[in-house]
Design a protein that fits this description.
Blueprint (H helix, E strand, L loop, with lengths): L10 H17 L7 H14 L9 H12 L2 H22 L2 H11 L6 H16 L2 H19 L3 H18 L4 H10 L3 H26 L17 H11 L4 H19 L4 H14 L1 H19 L2 H12 L3 H19 L2 H18 L4 H16 L6 H10 L3 H4 L4 H16 L14
Helix pairs in contact: 1-2, 2-14, 3-14, 4-9, 4-12, 4-13, 4-14, 5-6, 6-7, 6-8, 6-10, 7-8, 7-19, 8-18, 8-19, 9-17, 9-18, 10-18, 10-21, 11-12, 16-17, 16-18, 17-18, 18-21
Length: 435
């Protein structure tokens, strides 16, 4: 039986955007409506709807919601989120974060401060897989550098935010990477190659621009670090590059970090359990949001909303390039609306996958484009968590930072160029894994 397409199926998403954006506009605080609560309201609204001309019992709709929210891809994503949180918590507790930052600052040339800060932040965010963690670690040091050298603090914060979005986009263990590869059925190395080829020119251009903007000859000082404390990050990067399963990668990093922390006396065995639990708690909201969004999208699909959107988008798309522009516009708009690039990928991912299959777009490319554009917009919206955090640490308005988010803007520029030129091209076809 042919599935009926209906705009009704899109109403849960429209409802969410209205209450989320409406609350932000009315309160002047876009964090006024927590994402999890907003999606729970949207799920309740979705359960009140039905297919045009049909009647589905509440029990059946709850069953559809539960099966979609408990889909294997989403549950695996939740477990990976938890492990990523545990790793960051252990790395923080055993001093890995401070050591990797201080190592970079100890060798940072004083006549190339901004490029140096960007490189340190890029390495840190790639290692940790978290933009918020990178900003938390590096922004206070950036403020100190700005005070000592006289460099515009908004420029320094823009550099820090840009470096944080580098890892948020490219790291093997970032939640955006996990969301992109799981929704498109590709591996982290495949996505990294496609993604990296597109943003590499943006990195180079950013470093060149920052080198012209970098000034000052102040003595930044000497920072203490221990190389042994950086080993967990080396393990994470090395095992990921070897192609290990992401859960094995995270497990290895947690094990090594825990062992070093115990040997160095940073915590005892019982305290270790507490730090592991702390990290998992950090990711609980995101995990629950992923499940709720999965359920809502399942109902939207059942009501014909996804097919309706596909039909309307496809009606405007006549080529592969058009499909790529369609998927990146969708994920970008979702990020601007939700201020969460991971959620925007989770929401847009299934639709992007269908568009990719219809227009024969390599899923490695789709995963890379979704991550690039969602991360880029996350780095320039002034009400997003990253800019709010950086601005709060620097005691300036987040709007002041936006013009200096150089790397984020260049990600968009080179992302668009990649679509227009069709670069990178893949010699071998790739079949997405249906897991």
């Amino acid at each position: 039986m042919k599935k009926k397409n209906s705009f009704i199926g899109l109403l849960p998403l429209v409802f969410f955007l209205v209450i989320y954006m409406g609350t932000g506009i009315l309160s002047g605080e876009f964090s006024g409506m927590p994402l999890l609560l907003g999606f729970i309201f949207a799920s309740g609204f979705a359960l009140l709807l039905d297919k045009p001309g049909e009647k589905t019992s509440l029990d059946d709709k709850l069953d559809i919601f539960s099966k979609a929210g408990g889909e294997p891809t989403i549950i695996l994503m939740v477990v990976i989120f938890m492990l990523a949180g545990a790793f960051y918590s252990i790395a923080d507790a055993m001093g890995a974060v401070n050591s990797i930052v201080n190592l970079g600052l100890s060798v940072l040339p004083t006549n190339a401060l901004l490029p140096g800060i960007f490189i340190i932040g890029a390495v840190l965010s790639f290692s940790m897989g978290t933009s918020m963690g990178t900003i938390t670690a590096l922004a206070p040091i950036g403020v100190g550098i700005a005070e000592q050298t006289g460099i515009n603090v908004a420029l320094v914060m823009g550099t820090v935010v840009g470096s944080a979005m580098f890892g948020d986009n490219l790291s093997f263990i970032s939640d955006t990477t996990i969301a992109a590869i799981r929704t498109q059925g590709v591996g982290p190395r495949d996505k990294f190659k496609a993604n990296g080829l597109i943003v590499l020119p943006a990195v180079i251009c950013t470093l060149v621009i920052l080198s012209f903007l970098s000034t000052g000859n102040a003595q930044i000082g000497t920072y203490d670090y221990e190389l042994v404390r950086i080993v967990p990050y080396i393990v994470i990067i090395g095992t990921a590059l070897l192609g290990w399963n992401v859960m094995t990668v995270l497990g290895s990093g947690i094990a090594v970090g825990s062992a070093i922390g115990l040997i160095k006396g940073d915590f005892g065995a019982v305290e270790l359990f507490g730090f592991l639990q702390r990290g998992m708690e950090w990711m609980q909201d995101l995990a629950m949001i992923a499940i709720i969004v999965g359920g809502v999208v399942g109902l939207m699909n059942y009501y014909g909303g996804i097919d309706y959107l596909l039909e309307k988008v496809n009606a405007k798309i006549k080529s592969k390039k058009g499909a790529e522009f369609g998927m990146v516009i969708l994920v970008s708009l979702l990020d601007v609306a939700t201020t969460n690039n991971t959620i925007s990928i989770i929401t847009a991912g299934p639709l992007a996958k269908e568009m990719g299959e219809k227009y024969d777009i390599d899923p490695r490319r789709t995963a890379g484009l979704l991550d690039i554009f969602s991360s880029a917009f996350q780095g320039i919206i002034p009400y997003g968590g990253q800019l709010l955090l950086a601005a709060g640490i620097a005691k300036i308005s987040p709007v002041e930072i936006v013009p200096y988010s150089i790397y984020s803007f260049l990600m968009i520029v080179f992302g668009v160029l990649a679509i227009v030129t069709g670069i990178p091209k893949f010699k071998n076809s790739f079949k997405a894994e249906n897991k």
